[in-house]
Structure formats: C-alpha cells, structure tokens
Amino acid sequence: MTRLSANIHGWLLLLPAAALLALFTHYPTLATVWQSFRSTPKGSRPSVFIGLDNYEAMLEDPIFLKSIVNNLVYAAGTIPTSIALAMLMAVWVNQNLAGRGFLRMAYFTPTVLPMIAVANIWLFFYTPDYGLIDQVLKLFGRGGFNWLGTKETALWCIIVMTIWKEAGFFMIFYLAALQQIPPSLAEAAALEGASRWYYFRRVVFPLLMPTTLFVLINAVINSFRLIDHVLAITRGGPDNATTLLLFHLWEVAFKFWDTGYGAALTVVLLALLASLALGQYFYFDRRVHYR
Amino acid sequence: MSGHSHGRSAMEPVGLTRALDTVGAWVLALLWFLPLIYAVWTAFHPTEFAARFDLTAPLTLKNFADAWAAAPFARYFLNTVLLVTMILAAQLVLVTLAGYAFARFEFFGREVLFALVLVQLMVMPDVLIVENYQTLRRLGLIDTLLGIGLPYMASAFGIFLLRQTFKTVPRELDEAARVEGCGFLKMLWLVYVPLARPVYIAYGLVSISYHWNNFLWPLIVTNSVTTRPLTVGLSIFAAVDQGIDWAIICAATLLTSGPLLIAFLLFQRQFVQSFIRAGIR
C-alpha cells in the first residue's frame, strides 16, 4: 500500500466517526468553557462576556456547595461498601457452594434493571406507614417515619439503593480476577498451613488490587455521572438534601434555563471527571497489566 | 462462568466454615433478591395485597392490563426498540471502520486523532447535556429519536475495543487475502469482522443494556409520546399517577424492564462475560 493510499483510506474510514465525535464531544467541550464566561441571554438581551462572574456566583451558591458535599457523602457512602460486598460476593460465588448459579444470578440481576425501575420499587419500601420498611418496623411497635422526607435520612436511602444496584456489577470483575489466580498459590498456602483469612489477606487481596483500583475509579465516575435515581425518587429534596452535582446542573440548565451558569457548572464537573480519568490513565495503567 | 471447571481448590473451606459460608451467601442472595420478589408479588396480586403476604391471595394479570391501558406503553416500547436498534447499528458501522483505520492504516496524524477519540472516555455525552441540547436545537432535532441517539453513535469505547481486537489479527491473513485480490473493505468484511465476533457480541450487549436503561438525556430531549423511550414513559407514568396504585406501578416497572431481564436470565453467561470483557478492555 502506498503512503498516499494509506492516508486517503485511513482518513475516509475514520471520517464518519470523527465528524460525530467533533460535533458531540470536542465542540461542546470547548463551547461549554466559552459559554461559562458569558451571561445567559434573556429575551432581547443577548449573551455578553462577563469573565469569571459565573464562577464567582458559584462560590456564593449554597446549593452548589451543598451538592458538592452531598456528592462526596454519596461517594463515600456507596463506594467502600459496594466494593467490600462485591469482593465478598465474588469469593463466595467462586467457591463450590450449593446453588452457586442462583447466588450469582441473585447478586447480578439488579445491575441489568433500569435505574428508573429500581427507583420505583425502592420508593415503595421507603414510603411512610404503607411502605415495606415501616410495615416491618410496626411489628416492633415503631414506624410512621418518613425516610425520604427527612433531611438526615433521604440521602442514605439513595445510598442504600445504589449499593444494592452496583455491588453485583463490581462482583463480576472480582470474579474474573479470582479465576485468574493460579491454584498453585492456594496449594502452597495450604501446605504451609496458612489460615484462610491469612491467605486472603496476604495473597488474594493484593492480587485483587488492580481490579479494586479499576472498580474504584469507575465507581467514583459513576457517582458523579448518574442521577436517574435522584430524579425519580426525591428530585433533590427535601431541602436539597439529595441534590448531587449533576442534578443541580440539570436544574439550573433545564428548569431555570440559566445556560451560562449551567456551562460553568459543567466545567467543574468535567474538570472532576477528567482528572479522575487522567489519574486512571497515568497511575493505574502504568502499574497494572491485564492479560 | 469459570473458564476451567475447577474442583475444590486447596484453600476452600470445609466443615463448619463451609456451612457458615453457604448460609451467609444465601442470606445475602435472598436479601438481594427480595426487592424483585416483592415487585413480582405486588404486580401479580390485587392492590390490597401490596404489602400483605398471604399465600391464599388470588393471582391476577389485571395490573398489567391496567398499566398497559393507562399509558401508551406500546408506543414507548416501539420507541425504545427503534432507538436501541438505531444506535447499535450506527455504532457497529462507525466503530468498525474507525477501529480498522487505527489498527491497520499508517495515516498522517493517527496518534493525535486516537488521543482525540479517547477524550470521549472522560468527557462523556452524559455530562455535556447543556451544549449538546443547543446543538440539537440548531439542527432541529429536539424531540426526535435521532436526536437522542446521535451523541452516542461514535463511541470511543467501541473504537478502542475494536482497534485492540483488529490489531491481534495476524498480518499473514492480510497478505493472503490481498494476494487473492481482496480490496481493503472486502478484507475487513471477510477477515476482520468474523474474527472479532465475540467482541461484537460483548459490545452489543453492553450497548443495548446501556441504551435500554438510559434516562437523563432522553428525558431532556423528548417531550412527546411519539419519541419517549420506556424509561422516560415509566417515570412520567409513576409520577403523574398521583393515586399511587403500587400494584399497577410495579406491573409497569416489570413490563418495561421485562424484555431485558428475560434476555439476561436466558443468556446469563454471555451477559456476564460481555460486561467483564467490556470493562477490562
């Protein structure tokens, strides 16, 4: 193949994908940054350059600050627990326990359901008086508590539901990693008389570390990227107790139609996601080698 | 799903520990299954049994019929199927061509372009909602299925996946095909695509379940019955219906996730393996 034909063919093959990527990834990224320095057009007043005003407004926006704190609580509440549960599930499913097929299916099924469907089901659990949790509590003479309507508990309701939905997804990555561990390691450990816990802590856990990092980064990205459940269950309430960053962005841009400020919020979110992805690329890909 | 059928490994517990493991695993599994069992129970029984577990409660399909009649679910189904099919078809074509270009053609600017493609892995369409909405508005594509699908069609993840796969195709096959007088597109079709079959299946399953379940972007772009996918339709149904009849909502919920759930139960192994393949890249 001549150089010229390699060039022409390569570019032609790439053209359709490149055009769409330019239109829906590169252009909007740059446009977002540009718009974040401009005001929102209102009626007859066109958009003007306002420098860092949108970013200054952000620092004085209590809902923005609240959404950052909520997002951090949400990430800290969901991720370590999901990962620990996922590891436990994988270790169990990797053994020849009775009903292994059922166990694996039960753990993984929530992953396949749409978040909206999951939210509908869980909404009922949390409903005061009528809901499942309250019904159970009533047996113990308690209940009548509005889990989703109370500032202190609403975010935790969302967290518990997210753990339920995500743990099984992370499990399959651990399962794949566990099956890569050579059986000779377990044999050696058995010969040495190592306890099961010791073997897990000193052999299995370190070998799972690449998977843990992979899962961790994806879990953090998901915690900033997914708000379906917030939209379906609480709509950010009560009193912004469940407002996550992307939810705030959605409200600003598509409820109040404040596109300039919405762009500035997008820039913050993009910066967060980009630094995570770059961290994954530089830190994680260098140290970890999958076969 | 284990690649090798393994007997009991050396560190697997025996006796009491093993029994405890089994009990623990089952308790967690039942806990994990409970919400689904609950949804199925509620959907198949009259409303008054929504939170009353009575084995003599009569079974009924009325909730499904009511849900089906109360909202245009048939239309939502059609929209979702069309949307998912359209996105997957476009993705497969675009991703194959681009992956082939990156794997086998030495063209000017290849490395830079590849890096530009990978940008999408961190700057996801899910987040660029403000500007992408403006773009769709300028193109007159608000409230169309094409508008929902367009930002997802050129998938960096898919391009990456296929580039990796195509790179493993032995050059000798290339040479042989060229000697036979194959053009490069014919070679792609006859040699590369068949060899990448498992990757296509994995990518396809992940794409289908992602777009069947996608919610925020379709919610933003659509505002009429003729374009709304199931997820958006379901959320409107559950929110508008203030008389909250849980049995009907549960029926609608199962209805909308049913096809995917059944497909998953039937092809469990492929699903799980696809997700692993897609995730580990």
Could you characterize the architecture of this molecule?
The complex is a heterodimer of chains A (291) and B (281). Chain A has helices at residues 3-35, 53-59, 62-94, 100-112, 115-126, 132-139, 151-178, 183-191, 196-225, 228-233, 245-254, 259-287. The mean pLDDT of chain A is 87. Chain A is built from twelve helices and no strands. The radius of gyration of chain A is 24 Å and the shape is flat. Chain B is 72% helix and 0% strand. In chain B, α3 packs across α7 (156-167). Classes of the chains: A mainly alpha (291), B mainly alpha (281). The interface between A and B is large, with 103 and 103 residues.
What is the strand tally of chain A? 0
Quaternary status = heterodimer
Query: What proportion of the residues of chain B form beta strands (DSSP E)?
Result: under 5%
- Percentage of residues in DSSP E strands of chain A: under 5%
Mean pLDDT of chain B equals 85
CATH architecture classification of chain A: Orthogonal Bundle
What are the low-pLDDT stretches of chain B, counting only 5+ consecutive residues below 50? 1-6
Radius of gyration of chain A: 24 Å
- What is the distance, rounded to the nearest whole angstrom, between the alpha carbons of the first and last residues of chain B? 18 Å
Our Rg estimate of chain B from Cα atoms comes to: 24 Å
CATH class division of chain B? Mainly Alpha
CATH topology of chain B: MetI-like fold
What name is given to the CATH topology of chain A?
A: MetI-like fold
Largest sheet of chain B: none
The geometry of chain A reads as flat
Structural class of chain B: mainly alpha
CATH architecture descriptor name of chain B: Orthogonal Bundle
